[in-house]
Design goal:
The chain is α+β, with helices and mostly antiparallel strands. 24% of the residues lie in helices and 28% in strands. Helix 2 packs across helix 3.
């Protein structure tokens, strides 16, 4: 899902009113970004063109949301960021507690209450080549106002997904359990093609031909009071995915994690995507298979909205 799907104008400068799209470039916005331990003006948060993370994808990131001034599952995101870096064989020089504190500071400094937040860590520009053992590891954290992709009414119309020609690789081919920038290259390609063909997003299979995930979100299927979702054995086990699994069990659904073949999708009544950015997004179509967002989609939109609100 992309920011351009939003149909409201917000302080991030986006609008698609009347079919036009106006966007303030990300590097030209106002505000503050936490960069290697200091708050710097947004427009001054820059790196060198010969940065290792740019050339060789030694880069990991997180995506998380703040609701009413509280970042949802902040520590879980900070821990995953550290773990992702370790999987890519570099160490972020800040503790989980320091990353948590920096995220809160960024939110406060920018005067944000409801926001999307992007921590990102990468290897720097000391040396150029495949090895990055002598390169400094950097960490930056930005936050901006990014409303939900759809209003409640628009969500229930459902997203349209195509089938991606790209598949999620096997675990021995990529570091699939890291939220690593390089792993999103095929997602971008799949997303671009889907949008050109009039779809919202694309659904990807894995290397074995099983249903995996959308380009930036996990997928769930509903059959009466059963929720089926692919086993996260070759793609990221999203934090929102884990939350929905817990909510499903808590609210009387039978949760089934299993390998799902594309031919089985006709057996399901509803389908929805999950992610920190996408939140809960119902699906109306995958290729030539149609779903009707209904009771379950409405329930999980409501349950998740209640779950992410700060607890007094």
């Amino acid at each position: 899902m992309q920011e351009s799907l939003s149909n409201t104008r917000s302080s991030n400068g986006t609008s698609n009113k009347g079919g036009a799209m106006n966007l303030i470039p990300m590097d030209q916005r106002d505000g503050w970004i936490w960069f290697d331990g200091e708050l710097v003006e947004w427009k001054q948060a820059k790196i060198h063109v010969l940065t290792h993370g740019l050339h060789y994808a030694s880069c990991v990131f997180e995506g998380q949301r703040a609701y009413k001034g509280v970042i949802y599952k902040l520590t879980e995101h900070s821990k995953r960021l550290k773990k992702s870096a370790n999987i890519l064989d570099f160490e972020i020089p800040y503790s989980v507690e320091q990353i948590d504190a920096a995220c809160k500071l960024v939110l406060e400094k920018n005067g944000l209450i409801d926001a999307y937040m992007r921590p990102v860590a990468w290897c720097g520009s000391e040396e150029m080549g495949l090895a990055a053992t002598n390169n400094k590891v950097h960490l930056a954290i930005a936050a901006w106002k990014w409303p939900s992709y759809f209003s409640a009414e628009e969500r229930l119309k459902g997203a349209k997904l195509s089938w991606s020609e790209w598949c999620r690789p096997a675990p021995n081919m990529i570091p699939c359990f890291a939220k690593a920038a390089g792993l999103y290259m095929i997602c971008t390609l799949a997303k671009h093609k889907a949008m050109k063909e009039g779809y919202t997003d694309a659904l990807m299979l894995d290397y074995r031909g099983y249903v995996a995930e959308a380009t930036g979100a996990n997928v769930f299927f509903v059959k009466r009071r059963e929720i089926h979702t692919p086993i996260a054995d070759c793609f990221l086990d999203g934090i929102t995915r884990q939350t929905i699994i817990q909510l499903a069990k808590k609210n009387g659904y039978k949760l089934v994690e299993r390998h799902i073949l594309p031919d089985e999708l006709n057996e399901f009544d509803e389908c929805f995507l999950t992610g920190s950015a996408a939140e809960i997004t119902p699906v109306a179509q995958i290729g030539d298979i149609n779903f009707k967002p209904g009771k379950a989609c409405k329930e999980f939109i409501k349950l998740y909205a209640e779950e992410v609100q700060p607890k007094s």
